[in-house]
């Protein structure tokens, strides 16, 4: 069966598929993270790959919210990808010497004068803020469901004054001319992607010794329990790797927590913590899966 991913082709998510062992001929692009996950829920895809966390911008809350909107999906794997960004404009864009936009630096290249609008994914935008602020401070930023979608829209519509931020290969794929490369604020930016399945299909991976466990603790209006939740990890000496609060749905100040820790549910420490949080705080498991290795990063260009 097919494997859904955040498309269109050329997205960073597509570049991450090989790191999760997804054969290219099984991968099917979906327009949004939610639609990719819903395809798994509906049984139209056996698994989905979605972005989960970025080293510069933090958690991909769209993915966290879409995944935790039900208790019916499990994370079964993760991979890491180094992400690099470039700016592309339609090939027909004429250079307009002497018309650099308001606020652009003196002596800026001529093509800058033509760019009024930059399309990209919000997390890519967040990673290119410094470059955009210095070079295109007055350009409108239009967010798209993925960087590849931005490249596709700019390449297809060839709207005068529009540019896209995506990986260099993706800009080329959609026929754009790269006018600025390596425009990310951090050259070591990394995005973590996860593979998600229905629990019935999830052959829970056995412990490898280098695993991660993700769970949700929906504290909602019982915020005073947060410190006891965190103490459970300390007591069992289980290292927490992430704590993310999301709106709990019961008004301001109520939260649901995504917690991630080192170790596997079948490891004694993690097992004890998850069992206790499940019993006392209605926690539920999102998955125990092999942790990706920072030393074996793929580079997406
Ligand atoms: O826009 C894409 O191409 C994606 O795959 C999404 C995404 C993300 O959500 O973080 C993936 C990696 C980059 O950090 C920017 C965007």
Structure write-up:
- This protein is an alpha/beta fold and 301 residues long.
- The chain has two domains: 3-82 and 190-299, Alpha-Beta Plaits (2-Layer Sandwich), CATH 3.30.70; 86-180, 3-Layer(aba) Sandwich (D-Maltodextrin-Binding Protein, domain 2).
- The protein is 25% helix and 32% strand.
- It has nine helices and 16 strands.
- The chain has helices at 12-16, 33-41, 61-67, 122-127, 129-135, 147-157, 168-173, 226-235, 268-281; strands spanning 3-6, 27-30, 47-54, 58-59, 74-83, 86-90, 117-120, 140-143, 162-166, 176-181, 190-197, 211-220, 240-247, 255-262, 284-290, 298-300.
- The strands form three sheets. Strands 1, 2, 3, 4, 5, 11 and 16 form a seven-stranded mixed β-sheet that branches. A five-stranded mixed β-sheet has the order 8-7-9-6-10. Strands 13-14-12-15 form a four-stranded antiparallel β-sheet, sandwiched between helices.
- It is elongated.
- The two termini are 29 Å apart.
- The model has no long low-confidence stretch (mean pLDDT 91).
- The chain binds prephenic acid (PRE).
- Prephenic acid binds next to helix 1, strand 3, helix 4 and helix 6.
- Prephenic acid binds at residues 6, 11-13, 51, 54, 60, 83, 121, 123-124, 146-148, 191.
- Pathway: Amino-acid biosynthesis; L-phenylalanine biosynthesis; phenylpyruvate from prephenate: step 1/1.
- Residues 91-110 are annotated as: Disordered.
């Amino acid at each position: 069966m097919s494997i859904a991913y955040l498309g269109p082709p050329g997205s960073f998510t597509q570049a991450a598929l090989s790191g999760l062992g997804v054969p290219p001929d099984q991968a099917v692009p979906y327009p949004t993270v939610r639609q990719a996950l819903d395809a798994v829920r509906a049984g139209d895809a056996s698994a989905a790959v979605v972005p989960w966390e970025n080293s510069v911008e933090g958690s991909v809350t769209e993915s966290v919210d879409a995944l935790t909107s039900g208790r019916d999906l499990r994370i079964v794997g993760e991979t890491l990808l180094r992400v690099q960004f470039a700016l592309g404009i339609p090939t027909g864009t004429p250079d307009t010497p002497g018309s650099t936009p308001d606020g652009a630096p003196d002596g800026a290249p001529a093509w800058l004068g033509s760019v009024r609008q930059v399309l990209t994914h919000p997390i890519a935008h967040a990673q290119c803020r410094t470059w955009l602020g210095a070079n295109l401070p007055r350009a409108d930023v239009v967010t798209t469901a993925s960087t590849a979608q931005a490249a596709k829209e700019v390449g297809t519509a060839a709207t005068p004054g529009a540019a896209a931020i995506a990986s260099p290969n993706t800009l080329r794929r959609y026929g754009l001319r790269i006018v600025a490369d390596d425009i990310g604020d951090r050259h070591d930016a990394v995005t973590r992607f996860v593979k998600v399945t229905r629990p019935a299909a999830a052959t829970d991976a056995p412990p490898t010794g280098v695993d991660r466990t993700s769970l949700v603790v929906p504290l909602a209006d019982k915020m005073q329990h947060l410190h006891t939740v965190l103490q459970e990890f300390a007591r069992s000496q289980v290292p927490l790797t992430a704590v993310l609060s999301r709106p709990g749905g019961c008004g301001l100040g109520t939260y649901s927590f995504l917690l991630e820790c080192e170790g596997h549910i079948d490891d004694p420490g993690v097992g004890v913590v998850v069992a206790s949080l499940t019993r006392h705080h209605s926690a539920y498991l999102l998955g125990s899966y092999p942790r990706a290795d920072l030393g074996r990063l793929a580079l997406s260009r």
